[in-house]
């Protein structure tokens, strides 16, 4: 397997970083296929991706032109801020709900009947210890 020159590697890395996730997988798979034996290892190191990513890219290419996710592109960090904002609001509501449940549980145990301490003092347990 031949290595690419430093300049070509730099251009390949720039192109790879500019692509969507799906296109990066496919590009890496094509480059690895061009190199033949050892190509997956070399390209995985060059692009800093996992070998399984390249294998998935190969499977993606083999399933073309039938791409179930055609036209969909997932952007880096998409939805993260919205989810964080939602979780803050949900967290506050959840804390209030848990606080109410704790209060209800405490009030139930206080009024649920005799406790161990009240039974000890009343002589109800004398026959059991004797």
Describe it for me?
This protein is mainly α and 130 residues long. The chain has seven helices and no strands. The longest helix has 31 residues, at 80-110. The protein is elongated.
Layout of secondary structure:
Elements: H1 6-18, H2 21-35, H3 39-47, H4 51-62, H5 80-110, H6 116-122, H7 126-129
Helix pairs in contact: 2-3, 2-4, 3-4
Which series of helices and strands comes N to C?
HHHHHHH
Beta content: under 5%
- The dominant shape is elongated
Contiguous runs where pLDDT drops below 50 for at least 5 residues: none
Cα gyration radius (Å): 32 Å
User: How many strands in all?
Assistant: 0
Helix content: over 70%
Overall pLDDT metric: 78
Q: What separation lies between the terminal Cα atoms? A: 88 Å
Largest sheet data: none
Count of individual helical segments: 7
User: Structural class, judged by helices and strands?
Assistant: mainly alpha
């Amino acid at each position: 397997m031949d290595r690419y020159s430093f300049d070509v590697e730099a251009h390949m890395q720039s192109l790879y970083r500019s692509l969507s996730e799906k296109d990066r997988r496919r590009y890496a798979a094509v480059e690895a296929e061009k190199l033949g034996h050892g190509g997956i290892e070399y390209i995985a190191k060059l692009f800093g991706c996992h070998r399984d990513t390249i294998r998935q890219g190969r499977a993606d290419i083999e399933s073309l032109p039938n791409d179930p996710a055609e036209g969909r592109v997932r952007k880096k960090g998409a939805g993260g801020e919205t989810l964080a904002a939602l979780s803050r609001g949900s967290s506050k509501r959840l804390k209030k709900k848990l606080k109410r449940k704790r209060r209800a549980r405490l009030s139930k145990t206080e009024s649920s009947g005799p406790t161990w301490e009240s039974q000890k003092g009343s002589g109800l347990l004398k026959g059991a210890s004797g």
